[in-house]
Amino acid sequence: MSNAHLTDFPQPKKFGYFNTLGLWTLYKKEVRRFLKVGMQTVLAPVATTLLYMTVFTVAIGARRGDVGGIPFAEFLAPGLILMGLLNNAFANSGSSILVSKVQGNTVDFLMPPLSALELFIAFVAGAMTRGVLVAVVTAVTLIPFMNMMPEHWWAVLYFGLSAAAMLAMIGVIGGLWAEKFDHMAAVTTFVITPLTFLSGTFYSITNLPGPLATISHFNPFFYMIDGFRYGFTGHADGSLMIGVILLALINLALGILSYALLHAGWRLKS
Predict the structure, then answer these.
(1) Residue 219: is it exposed, middle or buried by C-beta count within 10 angstroms (0-12/13-18/19+)?
(2) What residues does each domain of the chain span?
(3) Which residues belong to any copy of the ABC transmembrane type-2 domain (predicted)?
């Protein structure tokens, strides 16, 4: 075949050093992967959140009273919304990489002309899309329980997107590390769920005894939920500035680590 004939094949479109066509294609694959089973990946988490909301408001809400001057249902809802976002962002990137490893088709994204940075962006952006979509649908379904109009949009966007990015990158690292589904389940059970439940999702940490309240301030999930809740209610239990800086630093560290592992092909090329 002559060199002239080679130019007849579609060539990847590049912008600077980025293979934008390849990146966009992998991102669409990640999004379509969870949308094809939307009943499981989007509607099921929303239904679970509605069950939490119903149980807590019906069984506890009437006797619970206000939290920091905020009705209990309005205090609870932002935490539940973010909890759904966290779980689904982590699940999407982690399961995508692990399933590819188990099925032996990692070649699908390793062979095309995609750099480690392009793989990183596509996996993280796909996971963030799922997390944000679940959060938006959940917020819409919770409108009957409370007034969902945010008071501070910057906090909703910053803490929501930062949380989605953090769990998406943790999912990338977990997916690379895991060799079977039990490993990913262990991360969810022993890391993600405890940090979420002990972060003030269902309660104000000001109600905790001194030592436990102090320990809670070392939990990055507390700052995610506290900042996100502040965006809706104007109420915060901790320092917003510490939360902004801490999440930025953690995401920077996770981004560097995720990129380095993908660049090295850790547990992908063996």
Answers:
(1) middle
(2) 3-264
(3) 36-265
The residue type found at 29 is K
Secondary structure, 3-state, the chain:
CCHHHHCCCCCCCEECCEEHHHHHHHHHHHHHHHHCCHHHHHHHHHHHHHHHHHHHHHHHHHHHCCECCECHHHHHHHHHHHHHHHHHHHHHHHHHHHHHHHHCCCHHHHCCCCCHHHHHHHHHHHHHHHHHHHHHHHHHHCHHHCCCCCCCHHHHHHHHHHHHHHHHHHHHHHHHHCCCHHHHHHHHHHHHHHHHHCCCCCCCHHHCCHHHHHHHCCCHHHHHHHHHHHHHHCCCCCCHHHHHHHHHHHHHHHHHHHHHHHHHCCCCCC
191: which residues sit within 8 A by CB, 6+ positions away?
none
Tens digits of residue pLDDT in 167-212: 999 999 999 999 999 999 999 999 999 999 888 888 888 877 778 7
CA distances to 65, 138, 145, 233, 235 from 71, in Å: 7, 19, 10, 10, 12
Task: Please check whether residue 104 is in contact with residue 11, taking contact to mean a CB–CB distance below 8 angstroms.
Answer: no
* pLDDT over 70, % of the chain: 91
pLDDT tens-digit profile of 94-140?
Answer: 999 999 999 989 988 989 899 999 999 999 999 999 999 999 999 99
- The answer to whether 225 touches 82, Cβ cutoff 8 Å, is yes
Nearest to 229 by CA among 152, 134, 125, 146: 152
Mean of the pLDDT values across residues 208-221? 85
